[in-house]
Amino acid sequence: xxxxxxxxxxxxxxxANVDVREYIKVExxxxxxxxxxxxxxxxxxxxxxxxxxxxxxxxEDFTPDICIVDTPGQMxxxxxxxxxxQIAQELTDAEKGVIYxxxxxxxxxxxxxxxxxxxxxxxxxxxxxxxxxxISKTDLLSEAELEEMMRWSEDPYALEESIDAKLTGMNRSxxxxxxxxIGRIGMDFDPLPxxxxxxxxxxxxxxKLMLTFTDGGKFTP
Length: 221
Ligand SMILES: Nc1nc2c(ncn2[C@@H]2O[C@H](COP(=O)(O)OP(=O)(O)OP(=O)(O)O)[C@@H](O)[C@H]2O)c(=O)[nH]1
Ligand SMILES: [Mg+2]
What we know:
Layout: E1 2-4, E2 18-19, H1 26-33, H2 37-47, H3 52-60, E3 68-70, H4 82-91, E4 98-102, H5 110-127, E5 131-135, H6 143-154, H7 156-166, H8 169-185, E6 192-193, H9 202-213
Parallel strand pairs: 1-2, 1-3, 4-5, 5-6
Helix pairs in contact: 1-2, 5-8, 6-7, 7-8
Bound molecules: guanosine-5'-triphosphate (GTP) and magnesium ion.
Magnesium ion binds next to loops.
């Protein structure tokens, strides 16, 4: 089942079984409290703490094998404030994991790739849950671009080479220093390429999640 946890989303490209916007709508908050879009979004995120139990009950009604929760894209409002980890903790007692998406188009650039590795490590520290990594929008990438990104995730030296070849000045030294820290944290990214346009990778993701979260018992290949 799918849950939308982004109170600011205007259009959802999927059918959410449970939707936070049934409880909290950013447009209404902006109007009621006389706030701009940023203030409205921030208050909407704070207000989510009050309705976690309602959402949790709504989810339980579905008795799902697996529940995918689409969290707000603005990580500074959700993931890096206490509300994110609090919701993750209170939404269910069942086994949980984090799916971190490397935006395929953004991460073609080695600087953005390294920044995403850095952010993913930060999320891992904040949520402290098993973490899975995806590279999205692969239908918009050439084979060579995707291959290069996959090499970056397997081999830090390949990433270092691309940084040296493609970046200069401040961006190059910043990437190198971030890579050093990421190396020290020692996180294994092992990203799975996916595309919602042609469904590439979703069968692999599904089996990975089923094997982890249902002991493989309900998984039929
Ligand atoms: N071609 C293609 N477009 C995609 C894919 N995934 C998402 N999009 C499109 O990319 C745009 C942005 O979507 P996302 O990257 O999912 O971001 P978002 O959910 O809108 O934003 P945040 O949750 O705030 O980060 C939308 O127009 C999507 O339809 C994909 O795999 N392939
Ligand atoms: Mg989104």
